[in-house]
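Researcher: Here's a chain I'd like modeled. Treat it as a single chain, no partners, no ligands.
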Amino acid sequence: MQGLNEIDVVIVGAGLAGLTAAHELKKRDVSFIILEARSRAGGRVYSTMSEENLPIDLGAQWIGPGQKRMMRLAEEYKLQLTPTYQKGKTLFHLRGKQKKTKGNVPGLSAFSILDIMILKKKIDKLSKQIPINEPWTSELAKQLDKMTLEEFIQVHSHSNSALAYYRLIIEELLCAKLYEVSALDFFWCIKSAGSIDDLLAAESFWFKDGAGKLIDKLIEPLTKFVYFDHPVQRIIYEEKKAVVYAGNQSWTTSEVIITIPPNFITNIHFDPPLPSDRVQLSERAGLPSVTKFIFIYDRPFWRELGLNGTVYSDQPPVNLTIDSSPEDEKRGILTVLIGSKSARDLASMKAEARHDLVKKALIRFFGKEADSPLRVFEKDWTADMWTRGGYGTHFPTGVISHFGPSLIEPVGPIHWAGTETAFEWRMYMEGAVQSGERVVSEVLNRLK
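Model: Modeled as a single isolated chain. Structure tokens:
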């Protein structure tokens, strides 16, 4: 018989990975609790509502056709998906020139287009050779982990336009500069998704009522098991038992599932200390800087200009815009993503100055009507005290090949989940769900 504060499993973090793990344990009548530092569930998924009752996604938002778990959840909970608006042309601001084009490749010279296609085939071919469950084991992976993504693309592209294109597209995907990320890290992401084209299709749909509605559905049957405002401070563990301390309470448990971002592992005191490889990995695991803006207009006026609202720009501060307007077009909504140094520069400004600077970019893209939004929402994820960046950890050179196994290897009763640990769609919501499923299999094997 268990005591009052004895439980089979303690889950740390109520994001998608933690909630998925909780649902899987609940199906199997395994007792658990979830300890969450925030006063809300969702982690890097965060939605709010406008005064007009429009859903505003300030965190993770989109899903793609290959993300079977997210598609299944949308169907299970009867959550309607809205296709990302793609009629009209995409704008590319590349190397000081503005180009309008159909699709995701700008109008360039035949040589540059050929260079882009050849490099894409090479990246896809190499990514298929990466062992998905343990990328640190192959010789190819070890070589890729010695160079930054910037170095790889410089070596394998033969035109400045191709280099600029890949820098633009990939930095938007990573929310980080190419020189900050190991080539292996990116190749692992591609392998987990399937191909570069699959990654580029990852923003095909969004939840009509906001991604936060999925979190609401997931948390609803779990509320009595969740302790909000309970950041974990200390874990004392041995081979088959652990004591987890949060707030002024403690729980004795057989297994611990930790789903928080790797950079936050260092905030927990472990006794005995974690293995040195796991510690060093966590210390090198900062998230990229990212800020998300939502601009609401009286209508999606850019559609009248023959534009689909998608902009890729290599000119600061805006990296990417996407049309998130409701299908009835009663309002026009532009989602604006700003990453890396641009996000850090904006963070040092006052709100009015930030908004004015971003609006100037939108005016450059869409004309004077972009100067008059009805409302602006923003979320600086780097300033979020329980995330400190977004949306996923991308490792610099040498980390995955040297310390990668510790990302997923259990330490006694302690198990690791979260999108960074995923084998499918790593760094996406789909990856978080997959990691929650995987970690429960590990736990159940130990509880037998």
